[in-house]
Design goal:
Elements (H helix, E strand, L loop, with lengths): L1 H6 L3 H19 L2 H7 L1 H18 L21 H70 L1 H17 L5 E3 L8 E4 H8 L23 H14 L1
Antiparallel strand pairs: 1-2
Helix pairs in contact: 2-4, 5-6
């Protein structure tokens, strides 16, 4: 109390001068981001120490307990440029975060797709190899049978091939005797309508030339031709 009352003419003014000096010293050693955002609490602590040291040197009789740093702004001459730089930094952080989020979304999907494609490729490889091995074994068995009975094996292969071919095509029965093109039976249509296998009855052999002529009902023949036209 004695020092505050008698050692200095204006102790309060000494506090102001000491604070201004400490601020210039500490702010001058720091960059703008530290002063405005990053280290404001640390700067306040350093200001308390610096101001107290200056007041102790002049025996001001004052103890500084706390310094509250408020309303920190850049100089007016560079405020616009500083705002632009701050916005650019914020945009950089935002774009970085968006890029990282996009990478976190795309990379797992790409890895999952790659793993699925690898599994499908392995499955296709195993299926093709198994099919090729089965075809080879089947061919070897056919070869053994062919060596035992070439004619029978050849006829059997021909019949199996024709059965496979004709199972996927339209089949029509025609009268091939005496160079006739008369349409008889659309087998595929009849099978689809009946829903059951169709049994074809073979026609009788042609009568010998010396046999007496057979009486033919003209009306029955015309009815047969009409049915044939509807089948076509």
């Amino acid at each position: 109390m004695h020092a505050f009352l008698f050692e200095n003419r204006d102790p309060e003014d000494a506090v102001t001068l000491a604070a201004e000096s400490a601020i210039r010293e500490i702010v001058g050693k720091s960059n703008m981001d530290q002063v405005l955002y990053e280290q404001r609490d640390a700067i306040a602590t350093d200001l308390v120490k610096s101001i107290q040291q200056q007041l102790d040197r002049v025996n001001a009789g004052i103890i500084i307990s706390n310094v509250n740093v408020q309303n920190v702004q850049a100089p007016e001459q560079v405020q616009a440029a500083f705002d632009d730089a701050f916005k650019a930094g914020a945009d950089r952080e935002r774009l970085k975060n968006e890029g990282q989020a996009y990478a976190n979304d795309v990379i797992p999907k790409a890895q999952g797709t790659a793993a699925r494609l690898r599994q499908e490729a392995e499955a296709y490889k195993a299926r093709v190899i198994a099919q090729a091995e089965g075809d080879a074994q089947r061919f070897n068995k056919v070869l053994d049978e062919y060596r035992k009975a070439p004619g029978v094996t050849r006829d059997r292969m021909y019949i199996d091939t024709m059965q496979q071919v004709y199972s996927n095509v339209t089949k029509v029965m025609v009268d091939s005797r005496n160079n006739s093109n008369l349409l008889y039976l659309p087998l595929d249509k009849l099978i689809q309508q009946a829903g059951a296998p169709l049994t074809v009855v073979p026609q009788p052999a042609a009568e010998p030339p010396n046999s007496p002529p057979t009486t033919v009902d003209v009306r029955s023949r015309e009815n047969q031709r009409g049915r044939d036209r509807e089948g076509r």
